[in-house]
Fold:
Amino acid sequence: MNDEKTTILENLRKAIQTYDNNLALESAKKAVELGIDPLEALDVMTVAIREIGDAFGRGELWLPDLVGASDAMQSAVPILEEEIKRRGENREALGIVVVGTVFGDIHSIGKTMVSTLLTAAGFEVHDLGVNVHAKKFVDAIKEYNANILAMSALMTTTCVEQENVIKTLINEGIRDRVKIMVGGAAVTEEFAETIGADGYDSTAPGAVELAKKLIGAS
Ligand code: B12
Structure:
């Protein structure tokens, strides 16, 4: 198992580095077949895609590289997410969460991981997708009677939109109805405090623990 596991995890890493959708998909399927923890498989790919992002940031890679790595990751992610949900089936409903990536930002992978893990942990999750306007968050919180709002932002230019959403909730008089957690590569603990969010975490498993803590379920 150990040799096979190492090979599969290595192939997942390689698939992201070489933009190989097929290798990503097949390796994800093998990971599930072999009973590898899907979170471990997601971690390996997350590290690899961030390295691609760093190289892009240094001007060593280009947008098509981000697209290639992202396509490869998104070939594997649904298989692993399905397994995460399967492992978490039959949990008791803990709370109602509205999730989305903020307006101006189309990065979806981390936000979707957060949604999946919250669902697997027993939360009722309403994922609004990406590029979500403040008004849409407000409407969804009212419609689903949510008690948690989780916002993702990956860019320094869009994390400020999280503050705009919080201000909109205050203006609508519903700020105190929800606990607000924020995350995504551009967000920090200090920033979360500055904008008046209730919590921040840098990982998707951490988002689940935070959500439980915020509603007093842990
Ligand atoms: C893949 C990618 C893309 C893909 C996205 C595809 C998709 N469907 O998501 C594509 C190619 C489309 C893309 C486009 C762009 N990108 Co881009 N992208 C990335 C990259 C390489 C990886 C992002 C990712 O998926 N990471 C993996 C996931 C798992 O990590 P994550 O999202 O951070 O989520 C984790 C945690 O943050 C946390 N989390 C996430 N959300 C939440 C929410 C809560 C509540 C909590 C608690 C936790 C939490 O949990 C997750 C799992 O642990 C990053 C590099 C990086 N270091 O992040 C650049 C990066 C984010 N992109 C960048 C840029 C500049 C762009 C573009 C502007 C490029 C361009 N010139 O067009 C466009 C922006 C388009 C837009 N308007 O949004 C920059 C942003 C720079 C900045 N600081 O502002 C980065 C940092 C690259 C860089 N170093 O320059 N990108």
Q: What stands out?
A: The chain has two domains: 2-87, 96-214. The radius of gyration is 18 Å. The beta strands are 96-101, 124-127, 148-152, 179-183, 199-200. Residues 2-87 form a domain with the Methyltransferase, Methionine Synthase (B12-binding Domains); Chain A, domain 1 fold (CATH 1.10.1240.10).
